[in-house]
Amino acid sequence: MVAQLGLISFSSSSCFKTHPFSFTKHNSSSIPTMAALSDDPIREWILSEGKATNITRISPIGGGCINLANRYDTDAGSFFVKTNRNIGPSMFEGEALGLSAMYETRSIRVPRPFKFGALPTGGSYIIMEYIEFGSSRGDQSLLGKKLAEMHKAAKSGNGFGFHVDNTIGSTPQSNTWTSDWIQFYAEHRLGYQLKLAREQFGDSTIHEKGQRLVKNIGSLFENVVIEPCLLHGDLWSGNICSDKNGQPVILDPACYYGHNEAEFGMSWCAGFGGSFYSAYFEVMPKQPGFEKRRDLYMLYHYLNHYNLFGSGYRPSAMSIIDDYLRMLNA
């Protein structure tokens, strides 16, 4: 779905590979001349709706492998800009809508996004608030509390899914609205990843066993009240930080409305401790059988890592599937 250019409120992160623009003189020795103003929608927005009259510096940020990221310093403050020369605006539309939805909860902090759109030379961009990060990831208990407040505040009346499809890493993530959570998770999360593993690697074993599991997960949700909560969707350590005041900040979402427990699917590389869970469950009480479902939600992300990065993640995914098949006698 190609996004229409427009003003919205969203955010993003700085963990992307960056590339500096070439610099030339233009009111300041540190301002890059990319193109005429009318051919540069980023600069055009900053110097109009962004309320700036002068861009003083553009500097690369972070390092990654999907997008380029730059900090734009201006006389009206700083902006964070991501660009991708190969992908159209639909990817940034998904990010923008997710960040906007999280921002509107007024709970946990996310960088506020402002605009996304197409680049005249091909590719796309997103402009966001620039957040000064602190020196640590911040207080674990405060992170748990704020995350739970977001889950509690934002519910969907459309069921499980999201307004647009988006990506988890670079993997497409289908968010077709579905009234039943078990059906949504079975089809649009586990089922898709299993199909991808078979198509990419010819892995009929993990596909067949995974499908057996998918057909038998219903009993793991007995006596559980499942509401469609707004989820960040990709909450690992690289997407968690704090601002200079120690408030938690979450970045680079793969948002959708789902079972709140699915938010912990990346806990194997998120570093959540006891204080995080204690604070979280004070706001969002723990549901019966939480421990039995925890690995089911990790499985989606292990499968995605298998599909993105190769066979090193297969044993973890296979172990989870085998353990559940034994537990469920499936």
TrEMBL record:
The keyword Secreted belongs to this UniProt entry's keyword annotation: no
Localization, UniProt: Plastid, Chloroplast
GO cellular component, one term: chloroplast
Transmembrane spans: none
Main location: plastid
Catalytic activity reported: N(6)-D-ribulosyl-L-lysyl-[protein] + ATP = N(6)-(3-O-phospho-D-ribulosyl)-L-lysyl-[protein] + ADP + H(+); N(6)-(D-erythrulosyl)-L-lysyl-[protein] + ATP = N(6)-(3-O-phospho-D-erythrulosyl)-L-lysyl-[protein] + ADP + H(+)
EC number: 2.7.1.172
GO molecular-function terms, A-Z: ATP binding; kinase activity; protein-ribulosamine 3-kinase activity
Top EC group: transferase
A Pfam family that the UniProt record links to this protein: Fructosamin_kin
Keyword rRNA-binding set for record: no
Keyword terms, alphabetized: ATP-binding, Chloroplast, Kinase, Nucleotide-binding, Plastid, Transferase
Known role: Initiates a process leading to the deglycation of proteins. Phosphorylates low-molecular-mass and protein-bound erythrulosamines and ribulosamines, but not fructosamines or psicosamines, on the third carbon of the sugar moiety. Protein-bound erythrulosamine 3-phosphates and ribulosamine 3-phosphates are unstable and decompose under physiological conditions.
Matching PANTHER family: FRUCTOSAMINE 3 KINASE-RELATED PROTEIN, PROTEIN-RIBULOSAMINE 3-KINASE
Recorded family membership: Belongs to the fructosamine kinase family.
The protein, known as: Protein-ribulosamine 3-kinase, chloroplastic
Origin species: Daucus carota subsp. sativus (Carrot)
